[in-house]
Amino acid sequence: MQDSLLAALQKEMASFAEPDGQAQSGRTAARLVPTRNPDISVIGDIRAGYRSDGERNVDLGVEEIELALKSVIDPYARADVYLSMASEDGEIKFELEEAFITTMSLPHTLQLKAGKFRNTVGKINLIHPHALPFVTMPAVYTNFLGDEGLNDQGVSLSWLVPNGSFYQELTFEITRGPDESPSFSTDDGNRLLYTGHLKNFWDLSENSTFELGLTGINGPNDLGLTSTLAGFDITYKWKPVRYNRYKSFTLQAETFFSFRSTDSGRINSMGLYALASYQLAERWMLLARYDHSDLPDDPDWNENGVSSTLGWLLTEFQKVEFGVRRSWGDKIETSYAGVVRVVFVIGTHGAHQY
Question: 41 with 349: CB under 8 angstroms?
Answer without folding.
Answer: yes
